[in-house]
Amino acid sequence: MDELRAITTFIRAAQSGSISGAARALGLTPQAASKHILNLEEWAGVRLLNRTTHKISLTEEGLAFYERCKPAVESIEEGLVGLRDATEDPVGAVRLAVPYGILRLVGPLMGRFLDQYPRVSIYLIAYDKTPDVVQERIDVGIQGGALPDSSLVARKFASVQLVPCATPAYLKKYGIPKTMEDLRSHRCIKLRVLDSGIALPWTFRKGDEVVTFDVPASISTNDIEVELQAVLSGAGIGQLTSFRIASHIRAKRLRALLIDYVSENYGLYVYMPRRTFIPKKNRVLADFLYEELKRHPDLQPCKLS
């Protein structure tokens, strides 16, 4: 039995929650991965995994073995990666997680990155819910909202505003709102949360406070692209993130409204899981995205007037 291969396969199965997940991570067939774990169990004389048709779970002995072996396996893997990184250009696959809303900014950068680092490959995972970094084995990610937790190393590359806006044609026909209250007499386009169906309230700055203001929705959707296209069609007023409308404001397809009430809503971050050793392939991608996105024209402070 190849003890290290068997133990590594067991660790990956425990982390992914399935033998097929371990097989994918290690480039094995599910049958080969299962055989490695069975050999380990037979050699140890104990059952390490409870198996059902759809999932696995650790036995008491399996959990104890996992907790003892996981740091050692990670140290070996990090040592091998560090040895290679010291002598080679960045090489290997990187799992990159990007929210749907910012894909259009990240996608065009990939070709330039691969020109610089031709031995790196990227698996780009698009998401609308923040992924489980451990479960999904994310190497590098982009996240909006509150500062990521302490298990991540994060760098902020942009601040995002929520900007009410509409087309000049709509404003010519229905008038320009001067106050938040004026929005109640306009057609408003709102975003809904997919799971709950709740329409998100609009957020404004009022003096030193950030306040929410609930406007009636003439159109509501759970899709951010539908929301944008509805506003661009002249269907009504929407409150959209600054990076999604920056190019449309520059081209005068949209006009920002209630400028004095616009607030900074959240930050955008590039992150990596906090580890003792971070592979060079992950570091160069994170550095590249940070430098490119922090100077992207659509992510600069929005010129609203």
Distance, first to last CA: 70 Å
Unreliable parts:
none
What is the CATH top level name of the largest domain? Answer: Alpha Beta
Task: Summarize model confidence as the mean pLDDT.
Answer: 87
Task: Please state roughly what percent of the residues sit in beta strands, choosing from under 5%, 5-15%, 15-25%, 25-35%, 35-45% or over 45%.
Answer: 25-35%
Number of helical segments with 4 or more residues: 10
Please state the overall shape, judged from the principal axes of the Cα atoms: elongated
Query: The CATH topology of the largest domain is what?
Result: D-Maltodextrin-Binding Protein, domain 2
Number of domains: 3
Helical content band: 25-40%
For the report, how would you describe the main beta sheet?
A: 9 strands, mixed
Write the layout of secondary structure elements.
Elements: H1 3-16, H2 19-26, H3 30-44, E1 49-51, E2 56-58, H4 60-87, E3 92-99, H5 103-106, H6 110-116, E4 120-127, E5 140-145, E6 152-166, H7 168-174, E7 188-191, E8 202-206, E9 209-213, E10 219-221, H8 224-232, E11 237-241, H9 242-250, E12 255-256, E13 264-273, H10 280-294
Parallel strand pairs: 3-4, 3-5, 7-10, 7-11
Antiparallel strand pairs: 1-2, 5-13, 6-11, 6-12, 6-13, 8-9
Give an account of the 3D structure.
Helix 1 crosses helix 2. The strands form three sheets. Strands 3, 4, 5, 6, 7, 10, 11, 12 and 13 form a nine-stranded mixed beta sheet that branches. Strands 1-2 form a two-stranded antiparallel ribbon. It has a two-stranded antiparallel ribbon with strand order 8-9. It has 305 residues and is an alpha/beta fold. The chain folds into three domains: 3-87, Arc Repressor Mutant, subunit A; 92-156 and 266-299, D-Maltodextrin-Binding Protein, domain 2, CATH 3.40.190.10; 160-265, D-Maltodextrin-Binding Protein, domain 2 (3-Layer(aba) Sandwich), CATH 3.40.190.290. The chain is 38% helix and 25% strand.
